[in-house]
Amino acid sequence: MAEESINTGAAAVTSVERDGDVTLIAGPCSVESLEQMREVGAACKELGVRVMRGGAYKPRTSPYSFQGLEEEGLKILREVGDEFDLQVVTEVIDSSHVEIVDEYVDMLQIGTRNMANFSLLKKIGAATADSGKAVLFKRGMAATIEEWLAASEYITMQGNTNVILCERGIRTFETSTRFTLDITAVPVVKKLSVLPIIVDASHPTGQADLVPAVCRAAVAIGADGLMVEVHPDPRAALCDGPQSLDIAGLKNLVVELEPVARAVGRSLA
Ligand code: PEP
Ligand code: MN
Fold first, then answer.
1. pLDDT tens per residue, range 33-71
2. Ligand 1 lining (C-beta closer than 6 Å)
């Protein structure tokens, strides 16, 4: 990859607007190949989706599952982001990866399993304090909203307040979905915090056919953005295929969300 295509933080800082347009973040659970990401990137571009996701380091439940392409995945993500003029986001799972991930992406994601990894939060906050690069901060699957908001201050106190909260479902006794989406978190966070909040519609459901309804509800309740997993061939996905939309599914989603956004005085970005 050419040196100049690596993100240096000099570009305009990405964020999700609080109470503004609804930002859609779409892409596969994991970066698997250049071809896979180019298919998703082209669809994002065509549909006006400005932020593309893709995991390079994967926090898998089983150590025998695909763990991600690591730096090769970051390179692919950046290359495709540049090709289609998209902002890119990926998860940081370990303190030792903060610098390398920061070099390649526009937004750093902290996953549910690391919400209370305070040393990682401090490190990411400090590393992005000068650039003000966006940090997508997911709720711990067993954390209260109060614990989540308190944890967000480990990032902001380092000097970066460009933190985007992401509700992604919590553990309850319910087994019909992968997690239970706490949709109420959206208005509660709007009351308690000044930060934007988005909803990840894929991880709480675990099932692609439930994703559109969850997205509609999230937009209607006031979410500032949505994250959805999208794969060109969900059945062949190395991670989270059952909950991934295909490209046609992403197109349908955008079409069906536009009127919902309009009905609550917003538009999709
Ligand atoms: C992901 O976004 O792919 C992910 C692993 O999410 P979470 O941390 O919410 O499980
Ligand atoms: Mn996933």
1. 999 999 999 999 999 999 999 999 999 999 999 999 999
2. 29, 55, 59, 111-113, 138, 168, 200, 203
